[in-house]
Amino acid sequence: MTTTPQTLTFISPDETADFAARIGSSLDAGDVLLLSGAIGSGKTHFARSLIQSLMPEPEDVPSPTFTLVQTYDTPAGEIWHCDLYRLNALEEVDELGLVDAFDTAICLVEWPEKLGALAPAAALKLAFETDPDTEETRHVSLSWTDPKWVEKLESAG
Ligand SMILES: Nc1ncnc2c1ncn2[C@@H]1O[C@H](COP(=O)(O)OP(=O)(O)OP(=O)(O)O)[C@@H](O)[C@H]1O
Ligand SMILES: [Mg+2]
What we know:
Layout: E1 6-10, H1 13-24, E2 32-37, H2 43-53, E3 69-74, E4 77-83, H3 91-95, H4 98-104, E5 106-110, E6 124-130, E7 138-143, H5 148-155
Parallel strand pairs: 2-5, 2-6, 4-5
Antiparallel strand pairs: 1-7, 3-4, 6-7
Helix pairs in contact: 1-2
Bound molecules: adenosine-5'-triphosphate (ATP) and magnesium ion.
């Protein structure tokens, strides 16, 4: 199956948050988003916005920089927000319960390169890039192989 690439541009943190909320509304248990990109490119901002959009009551969404994983119960199901930057060994991925969560929860994973071969093939990949000329602009390239994403992204507009 071929990967279909698509690049979107968001000119402010609010535009990124709106897109995160639109994708969020189409997610189900077993959907995994792999968020790659340099430090400060907007991965946590995107994940936080998505999680908050699915919360009935406003709640703090701290960056999982040190905890590696934060979980949230929402009406859409359980959400796992992971930051694997500080992951030391691949075994930790299983120890954290992340391999099971890929099937049972909505998972948002920062620094997914750390997953190596454990990265789920059916995930949606989002690659964040800053813009050399504009401080608040981000370019996000989307790619996937699982055809389920076509419909989910269409409904995200
Ligand atoms: N269009 C935009 N979309 C997302 N974030 C933006 C945008 N414009 C500016 N920003 C700012 O860029 C910063 C992104 O920080 P964030 O913590 O989300 O990065 P990160 O990719 O998670 O980094 P790390 O690898 O350290 O976890 C935030 O301060 C956010 O407000
Ligand atoms: Mg982050």
